[in-house]
């Protein structure tokens, strides 16, 4: 295949220069541009979580065969304006900023980078777990209050008696979903001595030998000291963890959600914290809904702004995955992560 014209489009999250080392290492010649943060001037109802104006993308990408990007909006109008386009490489696991139906209709291939952030998300999940079982959130809030009141940070050497926690080796960790992230969480938890259960209706239990795969979500919830969510969000599993499911969990257990906020009913979480049924909740979310002001006020809550995958290694891994896909395309080989 004749070398294609390649354009790399950077954004505020994944800058164009992040792509350069992986592309240069493979001898891939490319041009680079950066999307301007501006409100869209055309229809973007089919896409989500994008940055920039589709009209700008249509202009800067004209004449290119391949576009590598992260957050640029690729709408039907953009695709219609780019008749030379053959391949879109989106550095995300789910290309929600791409109109996949329009791309397919025009014969434009789309490839992605699934699992690029799995290591990062697994690390944060274990960090959440340790913080919760050792009462770090509540104790830090107590320290903040002491500082504000001008009191000593510890009244005596026995201060720790207020914060008795658990050790990982005493825990049974239940994973909802057993994909890329959950498998890495399981490996970390097992290495620290925990028992691990997993529920995933799409996984054949006979293919898994490192954890106990259970066929019933209710059973797993009832047996776990810590439940961690790793399912992909769909319309069908919205609030899959609600009041009924939380009620099945052991009193004093913990809930972690580093997946998507829609998987859990926010009011049910608040009720479980205030009643004491749950001893702690850790969330990494980006679209809060429901009683968030009251939820954030709870001392045993950890809340981060969707930063689980935000590491330098994640960005580099995404660039390397796209570079390998583009090289495979040039060599007329199958694309590993084509949608």
UniProtKB/TrEMBL annotation:
Per the database record, which ranges form the D-isomer specific 2-hydroxyacid dehydrogenase catalytic domain?
51-336
Asked if the keyword NAD belongs to this entry, the reply reads yes
Q: Which Gene3D superfamilies match?
A: NAD(P)-binding Rossmann-like Domain (3.40.50.720)
Assigned keywords, A-Z: NAD, Oxidoreductase
Q: Where is the D-isomer specific 2-hydroxyacid dehydrogenase NAD-binding domain?
A: 131-308
Read off the InterPro entries from this record: D-iso_2-hydroxyacid_DH_PdxB (IPR050418), D-isomer_2_OHA_DH_cat_dom (IPR006139), D-isomer_DH_NAD-bd (IPR006140), NAD(P)-bd_dom_sf (IPR036291)
* This protein's record includes keyword NAD: yes
Q: Looking at the record's lineage, which domain of life comes first?
A: Bacteria
Q: Which family does it belong to?
A: Belongs to the D-isomer specific 2-hydroxyacid dehydrogenase family.
Protein name, UniProt field = NAD(P)-dependent oxidoreductase
């Amino acid at each position: 295949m004749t070398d294609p014209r390649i354009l790399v489009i950077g954004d505020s999250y994944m800058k164009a220069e992040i792509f350069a080392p992986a592309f240069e290492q493979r001898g891939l010649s490319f041009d680079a541009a950066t999307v301007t943060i501006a409100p869209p001037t055309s229809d973007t109802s089919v896409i989500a979580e994008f940055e920039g104006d589709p009209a700008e993308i249509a202009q800067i990408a004209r004449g290119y065969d391949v576009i590598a990007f992260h957050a640029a909006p690729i709408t039907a109008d953009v695709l219609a304006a780019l008749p030379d386009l053959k391949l879109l490489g989106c550095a995300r696991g789910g290309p929600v900023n791409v109109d996949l139906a329009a791309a397919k209709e025009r014969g434009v291939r789309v490839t992605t980078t699934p699992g690029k952030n799995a290591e990062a998300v697994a690390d944060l999940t274990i960090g959440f777990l340790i913080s919760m079982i050792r009462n770090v959130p509540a104790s830090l809030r107590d320290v903040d209050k002491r500082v504000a009141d001008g009191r000593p940070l510890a009244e005596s050497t026995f201060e720790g008696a207020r914060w008795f926690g658990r050790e990982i080796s005493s825990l049974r960790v239940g994973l909802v979903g057993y994909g890329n992230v959950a498998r890495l969480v399981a490996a970390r938890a097992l290495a620290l001595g925990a028992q691990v259960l997993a529920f995933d209706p799409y996984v054949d239990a006979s293919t898994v030998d490192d954890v106990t795969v259970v066929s019933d979500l209710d059973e797993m919830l009832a047996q776990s000291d810590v439940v961690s969510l790793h399912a992909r969000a769909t319309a069908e599993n919205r609030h899959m963890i609600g009041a009924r499911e939380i009620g099945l969990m052991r009193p004093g257990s913990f809930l972690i959600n580093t997946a998507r906020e829609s998987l859990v009913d926010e009011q049910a979480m608040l009720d479980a914290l205030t009643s004491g049924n749950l001893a702690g909740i850790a969330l990494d979310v980006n679209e809060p809904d429901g009683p968030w002001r009251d939820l954030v006020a709870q001392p045993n809550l950890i809340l981060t702004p969707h930063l689980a995958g935000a590491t330098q290694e994640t960005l580099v891994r995404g660039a390397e995955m796209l570079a390998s896909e583009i090289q495979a395309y040039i060599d007329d080989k199958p694309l590993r992560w084509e949608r």
